[in-house]
Every structure is written in structure tokens, then in C-alpha cells.
Amino acid sequence: MEKRRDIDKDKNISKRLAEELQRMKENSHVLLSGSEYVSIRILRDTPSLREYKLMVAFSRYSKPRLYGKVLVIKLTLPEEFPKMKPRIEISSGGEDVDLNLGNYLENLPPLRNWNPDRHLFEVALSILEFFNNFAVPACVICLNKITAQDYENTVRCRNPRCLSLYHKNCFESWISRGYKRACVFCDTPI
């Protein structure tokens, strides 16, 4: 009788894992299209249904220091899944992108408030939303975000370590008020 319960439990878990995989496949276009700043691709390079990798790619409209960068986030489902939440880790990324993001990602609402009815796709969508907000460039003077439409009308700091962005109008207004023609942060001439 005990063995029968274990077999039923295993069938339910593998059914749930198969459902998770199917849901991720069905909704991957939402993640891949992403936003103007970031997109996510689901990688399946392991036969295990317990491991998912999300490749986060930053677009040309994201913050200049993130442009072209790629992070790989690994979601691992514990044996007790779905009772236990998935483990999340950043398995790659440049040193300038690695800002202890693991702590932030662990506290995303679907992971922080995990319950057995939640699905991995909710976690993936939450990761997309987090990086979308994280990657939004902002004008250093007015602090408003710079959209894809604004991108052509921006001024950029020439210092490769800074790369601050300014709305052209904001920067011209800044100079007309008597400030020098230099980056607000690093003082590099623009």
C-alpha cells in the first residue's frame, strides 16, 4: 500500500513537470518578444525536467552599460516541487552586470509568495518585468526614462565606464544655464 502511494506521488510530480514544460513552451513567445529593453529565451539543454535556463538579452535601447550583455538564469526545481519553490541562480554574466541580482530575484513576488498552485511561467514573467525595469535608461538631468523613440535624440557621455545618457533638450538647457559642457557624473567633456 505504501509503495502504491509513492508511485502515485511520482506520477503526479512528473505530470506537473510536464505541465510546467508545456506552459513554458506555449508562452515563450511572450518572453522572447519581451520589451524594447530586454528579451528572455528559454533554453532546454538538459534532459532533466527539473532544470530550466532563461537567457536574458539586453537590447540596444537598454542602459548603455547593459547593451549587448547576456545573463543566464538557472531555475532548478527541488525534489519537493511544487511544495518547495524553485531555486534560482545567475550562472553567467559580466562583472559589471553582476550586482548581487540573486538577492533581488529570490524576492520577486512569485518566489517570495510561493505556493503549490504557482507556475514557473509566472516566475519567468516576473523576471522579465524585473529586468525590464532594471534596464530602462534614464536621463541624468530630468530623471525621466529614455524610450526607444527618444533614443535618437540623446547625448551620451564618451567615457566608456560612465556612458550616461541625456535627452538632447535637457542637456542643451543645462548648458544654457551656464553649466560646463561635461558629464554630470564623471566630468568628461561631451
What are the low-pLDDT stretches, counting only 5+ consecutive residues below 50? 3-8
The CATH topology of the largest domain corresponds to: Ubiquitin Conjugating Enzyme
Order of helices and strands: HEEEEHHHEEH
- Terminus-to-terminus distance: 77 Å
CATH architecture assignment of the largest domain: Roll
**Text of the CATH class of the largest domain:** Alpha Beta
Shape: elongated
Radius of gyration: 21 Å
Biggest sheet strand line-up: 1-2-3-4
The biggest sheet amounts to: 4 strands, antiparallel
Strand content: 15-25%
Would you write up a description of this structure?
With 190 residues, the protein is α+β, with helices and mostly antiparallel strands. It has two domains: 2-135, Ubiquitin Conjugating Enzyme; 137-190, Herpes Virus-1, CATH 3.30.40.10. Helices cover 35% and strands 17% of the residues. The protein has helices at 2-33, 101-106, 109-112, 120-135, 168-176, and strands at residues 38-43, 51-58, 70-76, 87-92, 154-156, 165-167. Strands 1-2-3-4 form a four-stranded antiparallel sheet. A two-stranded antiparallel ribbon has the order 5-6. Helix 1 (2-33) packs parallel to helix 4 (120-135). The protein starts with a helix and ends in a 14-residue tail after the last helix.
